[in-house]
Design goal:
By secondary structure, the chain is of the alpha+beta class. It has 9 helices and 13 strands. The structure holds (R)-mevalonate. (R)-mevalonate binds next to helix 4 and helix 5.
Length: 328
């Protein structure tokens, strides 16, 4: 066993297809240049102690799986549980009998639709695997992160762990898995955070209820979402930013029809579009969280400023080719 191991994994934005992807429609997802870092060290006892600087919290899972808070309260158990389960899973498949200190640092806003929990899960799996000298493939890391994600919300499509693991630009479909898209062109993107935190599982349940109530309408909205994603792949390949922007606007309108937008999101989207963005949409589960806006390269800072002016935390970003990686 090593004495320390560190890994990182990227945040993501969904360009097309959030929510629809839960119902086996295609999504286009992009890793961005913000990452979660996880450092793991062995302990002389059998506890698994997890600390996150991002949420100012730490706590220990004892050998019988009980959570004991150190900083912060019991509410952090749910956040740390997926990491604990990844650790237990990997410890069970190694011959090492050890506890672990797991430390998370991250530049990814939390509960904001940027895939922070999946990035932490993928980086945790990679770091713990490396510490225990278990040879994990990317596919193993994806599976471990997906199992963990199932605890975060009951019915995940797998799109978040897939992009955190593989990075780049992916076309993802539940029944078909990932297809890497080789996109040459730069994608000048502004991300705006409403600052409104929400629970992905609640938003996914809301869509599920709506679909049960109005299946003929919701299925058509989702079919339209598929058509948007297919055209989006073509526009990405040809670097046609104008068409991408139009398609993002249409995708957002479909998400509005599903009731996952709100006033805070609409305010930031309107500001981005007014300031010259080619297209803007919510990204992730909605109900708060982040919006993304695409612009021409010379306008991205203007769009960032407009989102800030409308009350959002905003930053410019671009695609990141690398998924989960060991940092040594
Ligand atoms: C969350 O980033 C994306 C959703 O489609 C949920 C999922 O795919 O698991 C809302």
């Amino acid at each position: 066993m090593k004495s320390e191991s560190k890994a990182s994994a990227p945040a993501k934005i969904i360009l097309f297809g959030e929510h629809f992807v839960v119902y086996d429609k295609p999504a286009v997802v992009i890793a961005i240049d913000r990452r979660a870092y996880v450092t793991v060290k062995p302990r002389s006892d059998s506890k698994i102690v997890i600390k996150s600087a991002a949420i100012n919290a730490s706590g220990a899972f004892t050998s019988n799986g009980e959570y004991r808070p150190i900083e912060g309260g019991l509410e952090n158990e749910a956040r740390f549980k997926p990491i604990y389960l990844i650790a237990k899973n990997l410890l069970a498949s190694s011959s090492e009998e050890t506890g672990l200190n797991i430390e998370i640092t991250s530049s990814i806003p939390i509960a904001a639709g940027l895939g922070s929990s999946a990035a932490v899960a993928a980086a945790s799996a990679a770091a713990i695997g490396s510490l225990l000298e278990i040879n994990l493939t990317k596919n193993d890391i994806f599976r471990l992160a997906l199992e963990a994600e199932k605890l975060v919300h009951g019915n995940p499509s797998g799109v978040d762990p897939a992009i955190s693991t593989y990075g780049g630009v992916l076309l993802y479909r539940k029944s078909e898995g990932i297809k890497r898209l080789n996109i040459e062109s730069d994608l000048p993107l502004a991300v705006g955070n409403t600052g409104v935190k929400r629970v992905t599982g609640d938003m996914v349940s809301h869509v599920s209820r709506l679909r049960n109530q109005y299946p003929t309408v919701v299925d058509r909205i989702m079919d339209a979402g598929s058509a948007v994603a297919s055209l989006g792949v073509e526009a990405l390949k040809s670097g046609d930013l104008k068409t991408l922007g139009d398609l993002m606007n249409m995708n957002h309108a479909l998400l509005c029809a599903l009731g996952v937008s709100n006033q805070a999101i609409e305010r930031l989207i309107a500001a981005a579009r007014r300031s010259g963005a080619l297209g803007a949409k919510l990204t992730g589960a909605g109900g708060g969280g982040c919006i993304i806006a695409l612009s021409t390269p010379n306008k991205v800072h203007q769009v960032v400023e407009a989102i800030r002016h409308a009350g959002g935390e905003a930053f410019a970003t671009t695609k990141a080719p690398e998924g989960v990686r060991i940092e040594e």
